[in-house]
Amino acid sequence: MISGPILALDGVSKSYGDVLAIDDVSLNIAVGEVFALIGENGAGKSTIVKMMSGEIAPSRGTIRVLGEKVAFSSPRDALARGISVVHQHYALVPDFTVAENFALGTAPLGRLDRSALNRRIRTLAASVGVEIDPDALVGSLDVAGQQKIEILKALAREPRFLILDEPAAVLSPEDADRLFLAIERIRRQGISVVLVTHRLADVFRICDRVAVMRMGRLVVEGDVTNFAPEDLISLMMTGERGAALPSQPCARAATATAARGDTPVLQVRDLELHRANGSVAVRSMSFDLAAGEILAVAGVEGNGQTELVRSIAGLERQACGSIGFSALEGELSSHSPQALRQAGLAHVPEDRIHDGIVLTQSLAENLLLGHLHHPAFVRKGVIRRDSVVRQTTQVIQDYGIRTTGPMQPIGRLSGGNQQKLVLAREFMNDPCLLLAAHPSRGLDIRTSALVQGLLIEHRDRGAAILLVSADLDEIWAIADRVIVLSDTRMHGPVPIHETTRQEVGAWMAGH
Length: 511
Ligand SMILES: Nc1ncnc2c1ncn2[C@@H]1O[C@H](COP(=O)(O)OP(=O)(O)OP(=O)(O)O)[C@@H](O)[C@H]1O
Hints:
Elements: E1 7-16, E2 19-29, E3 34-39, H1 45-52, E4 60-65, E5 68-70, H2 75-80, E6 83-86, H3 98-103, H4 114-127, H5 143-156, E7 161-165, H6 173-188, E8 192-196, H7 200-206, E9 209-214, E10 217-223, H8 229-238, E11 264-274, E12 280-290, E13 293-298, H9 305-312, E14 320-325, H10 337-342, E15 345-348, H11 352-356, H12 363-368, E16 378-379, E17 382-383, H13 385-399, H14 415-427, E18 433-437, H15 445-460, E19 464-468, H16 472-478, E20 481-486, E21 489-495, H17 501-508
Parallel strand pairs: 3-8, 3-9, 6-7, 7-8, 13-19, 13-20, 15-18, 18-19
Antiparallel strand pairs: 1-2, 1-4, 4-5, 9-10, 11-12, 11-14, 16-17, 20-21
Pfam family, one: ABC_tran
Organism: Pseudaminobacter soli
GO molecular function, one term: ATP hydrolysis activity
């Protein structure tokens, strides 16, 4: 029987040059508990996780596993002590089967004993109450299926301690329910779980204890039952319980003023979209998007949302059908992405790291991306550095970006703070067509509200907005109509007030 914490941080700090990312944090995590780590963007959650999992070393302080002081020099060291992580970005090979992916990194080198491997996967899956087909191709699985493989891979390493980094953010409500049942079973096996999340509902639903981080410091740690949701919001935002909080924009109230146009800004007809591996993602999709409306595309990720947005952004070509953009003559795919941008299309991409930013460049340079034709920034082919820096400083202030300044490389910012800069850049210049793929994913509550308020504002000044989101709360808060992509089919479009979350949830689940 183990007494005392399985993992303890003792006065741990982490500096990056002059930036003190973590400041003297002490935490104890007990055996078999589910522990929530929460805080606003840039609060230090990922840095704590990276220290627990051996990715980085603390600058000061001690980490103990089962009372013994450890100094991890790599994730392999942490793994040897029973610490496993499931990251937000999965490292799976789409052309391999589930079993082959599972074998990568978990099976000994040499010939694969496929039937033994399949048995092992099924046994592990059954132990946490999930189903999985070991022979399925990973490329054919949706995001929930891929997450299952990552969790099973982590469990195959027989951890004592499992860290899940925002696991529910990408899931449909039904898949999130299944994930929470699996976590409950993992806990019953005596494994401790750390859950990093921005979703307070998940904290109250599944976690025993919670730690609130703010600006690199631990604000409070305690039993979840000691807190109400408003306490945690207040602690995350101000560091105090019961503080008067800034009021959130009331998204729906603005609907009545929406300047809805008659001619569609975007006209999609009989569209067929293929995935990178050639399989059909969506068959025969048609819809119009008017000025002054937000059309939400709901659905479990991997059902064609990525291909839809990339086709409209001019980044890939549809297999069949047509897309018309009212700002330009002819078929949209006959224009370059630059021409589309200049005509008023903006794009908040789903994959920020690949399509949204250049990690090694500064915030100012990243803000400039896509605005190189703008007279405020470039005159006679010369970049007006002062003006770019001034605008970036304003954006940092408006969006509350946690950074050392406009010249800091964006790769040094937390994920949520990088996303804020992308949003600011895409909202600049008042686009007439805005493609927003998961705009508030990874953002804290305050910034999600800010982003939703901005989407409403742009809709009300007449922008046409295509909002891809797996978050039904967000869709119900701001969208006018919704379509669901599931199993190569499109359901809707239907006005939000003519449907229910149950109906949309059922479509998402493929019913
Ligand atoms: N490599 C780095 N160099 C400099 N500063 C860094 C680096 N990595 C993180 N930081 C800083 O450390 C602080 C904490 O970042 P961290 O990623 O831990 O926040 P987070 O709570 O996980 O945020 P989010 O919710 O946005 O993911 C931020 O201010 C960030 O800018």
